[in-house]
């Protein structure tokens, strides 16, 4: 008697399903919409990885027109990943402290579960975006002149920081960029000193997030992968 070999789910699939289930349960119990919002933002943060993978396949077939189109879409969707750090503001109404003399922090487990759920989502989403940047770096940018490559990263991080500002404060989505008249009016009417400062801080955060993961994870993977 022959048995079909059972396909095992990828550990990442188990992890995502567990996170999805926990998010839904937390939303049902706490009625906090952040637990659903974080799922949507997490999905958007995964789009750059999909686009980077499609760029890989397009480059293999030397379909450079498709590579450039996918690269443009990747740059538009990339800020959704580092943007997730701003989702912590939705926890501002929660109190992690108590007013008693014997306890400094709250013993409400649901409050801590909310913090962990959002924190895990932010970490995963940011990591997915940085992984997509690493894919682009290793496949396309590594062959460029050092000056050109560093210039690309400098401009790219600034644009990503500005994209985070647009998403958080102007409430525009990645696909809104295809409506040029709407975007142009918003950008010209809302550029202030705060815009510039926030953009620089967000760009610095994105830079640190990428190079931290690059140094701690991606370089060791390259070293051990070649052995």
From TrEMBL:
Keyword Transmembrane helix applies: yes
Residue stretches spanning the membrane: 12-30, 36-56, 68-89, 109-131, 152-171, 191-219
InterPro entries per the UniProt record, alphabetical: DUF1361 (IPR009793)
A Pfam family reported for this protein in Swiss-Prot or TrEMBL: DUF1361
UniProt keyword list: Membrane, Transmembrane, Transmembrane helix
Name listed for the protein in its UniProt record: DUF1361 domain-containing protein
Protein species of origin: Sporolactobacillus mangiferae
Upper taxonomic lineage: Bacteria, Bacillati, Bacillota, Bacilli, Bacillales
